Amino acid sequence: MATLTDLPRELRQKILLAAVQQEDQLVGSTWPQTITTLLRVCKTLRRDMPWVLNTWSPQRWLQRPSDLTTLPTSLTIDGVACGPFASKPLHTLRISIFHDALPANIRKADWAMSRAEVLHPELIDAWNAFVPQLPVDESVRPTVLLDVTPAPGWMCAGGHVCELNALLLDDRTARIFMSWQVDGIADLVLRIHRHYAGNVDVKLTGALAVKSSQFVAGVVHRLLWNNGIRIHFVGEYVDPARAGLGMIRHAVQRLAPKKKTAEVEDWARALRLAPLRRVEWSKKSIKLFDRACDGASVEAVTDDLREVAELMVDEQRTRVEMPPSGNAHRAMVHSVAQDMGLLTASEGEGENRYVVITKKSL
């Protein structure tokens, strides 16, 4: 049976190139695992790799400005030089604007802040200062993708879907924090456009809450009307209705974590609320909780869940009155409380209507 090494060299190299092209992003100074693995297979494949690597044109992903200077420069394989990659024509560049952002800082956003207090201005300032270092090749019209996901890199890397969704959908992130970034991102796009003398396609990408569409519209309109530059958002909007169990699961994880970490402010309370992890949430509660998070701060909705959970676990308490709220929010409170085995009723009139939660009689 024929193996890869038995194939004609030209065909073999194309197969290797197809495998290497699965690594479509070159991040920092680390060689992708696919390449390092192929180099160790056998001498035949090693001799094919110089052509493969010189043909390979990955998307360069910059998580911080210094990444451009730390890209793998060249590689010598059995005396044959590959690269230098840093000087290769730039076809696609992805810039992660908020890779080093702190979630706590993002959540501090408040409408009362002045423009001088805009959170994390140093990140956009650093990218603005970095623009002159971008490589220019007049024979290539590059595409620059600005990833405007308002979350740190570790949260976007995977395995943190609940935390990421909660941060993106938080009203302070989606509306306030992102609204403060309109001018900074628009200025960055304009600077990149001028650096390439207009011979560039700049696009916004990443993950945003639906409520952050106002930020996108602000950037698009400012660039179009002030500078005649057309720009589009090619990322994805995170819809709470599609977040499934993510939001309520995240809330439970925050209120009753299984392990004690530095982020747990009150471990005694977390232990007390441990029964919350055993509640089986109905589809109705999941849907209503997501809608509530979309209409208000995730923190506020989580606080309401905590209040109901405190009643569930406290043997001394028999009743709690929730603050007045709208129909949708009250429906969520009714549903999650009933999932916890509690009784609910609404009292009051109009804007003062609220939910009363009591325990079932033995």
Write the layout of secondary structure elements.
Blueprint: H1 9-20, E1 25-27, H2 33-39, H3 43-55, E2 59-62, E3 75-77, E4 80-82, E5 92-96, H4 103-106, H5 121-130, E6 143-147, H6 153-156, H7 161-169, H8 171-179, H9 182-195, E7 201-205, E8 207-209, H10 213-227, E9 236-238, H11 246-255, H12 267-272, H13 283-295, H14 298-313, E10 319-321, H15 327-339, E11 342-347, E12 354-359
Parallel strand pairs: 1-2, 2-5, 5-6, 6-7, 8-9
Antiparallel strand pairs: 3-4, 10-12, 11-12
Helix pairs in contact: 1-3, 5-9, 7-11, 9-10, 11-14, 13-15
Structure description:
With 362 residues, the chain is an alpha/beta fold. Helices cover 43% and strands 14% of the residues. It has helices spanning 9-20, 33-39, 43-55, 103-106, 121-130, 153-156, 161-169, 171-179, 182-195, 213-227, 246-255, 267-272, 283-295, 298-313, 327-339, and strands at 25-27, 59-62, 75-77, 80-82, 92-96, 143-147, 201-205, 207-209, 236-238, 319-321, 342-347, 354-359. The strands form four sheets. A five-stranded parallel beta sheet has the order 1-2-5-6-7, with helices on one face. Strands 10-12-11 form a three-stranded antiparallel beta sheet, with helices on one face. A two-stranded antiparallel ribbon has the order 3-4. Helix 9 (182-195) crosses helix 10 (213-227), helix 11 (246-255) crosses helix 14 (298-313) and helix 13 (283-295) runs antiparallel to helix 15. The longest helix is centred in the last third of the chain and has 16 residues, at 298-313. It is globular. The chain starts with 8 loop residues before the first helix and ends with a strand. The mean pLDDT is 81.
